[in-house]
Amino acid sequence: MKSSVIIFPGSNCDRDMDVALKKFGFKNQMVWHNDTDIPKSDLIVLPGGFSYGDYLRCGSIAGKSRIIKSVIDFANSGGLVLGICNGFQILTETGLLPGILQQNKYLNFICKNIFVKIKNKENKYFKNIKKEVLELHIAHNEGNYFCSRDELKLIEDNGQIAVTYCDQEGNDNEANNPNGALKNIAGIFNKEKNILGMMPHPERMIDPFLSGEDGSLFFENLIGSL
What confidence tens digit (pLDDT) does each residue in 16-43 have? Predict the structure, then answer.
């Protein structure tokens, strides 16, 4: 299976993602944001980081990069597009995902391990993961997901909430919400479920000697689903 990771000025998780994808069997290619074409791919990843230094709004400038038209065309054709952290922010800026990512509730940068509950397994990203709760990592200042009341109703009705922040037992309430995100939302799909944006970093949790292995479950499932 082939994947492509898009690199923007300020990306800092592109190499981590490259390592993770290759570890689990993807033939990965790195694509510069100023290119216009994407190599033949089964998956496109927009990685975490601080594209363009997060000037204006997180992901807003990256969302106007030359490569984005090809990403949108690929997504609209049904291709899998994964946005992690800043990549999630870029997906909302392009309109590929609804809502916005605003500043964390307590105006602080958060960097720690957290738990997320998988809310929908009827998709290629999570369908064969046996666990209901995963331990992953977050590192962001603008991870507070928000959308309008009408958008939220559509998201809930269509099963577009992918993962929510929770505790180790899967309780997803306000006490387990690190950034104030609406409904504890840590990640969402588009209506067709081929696009996933989420704030937690699975690529940082692929080695027990570093931090943990629940990210491995994500990548193993993903390549097995393609």
Answer: 999 999 999 999 999 999 999 999 999 9
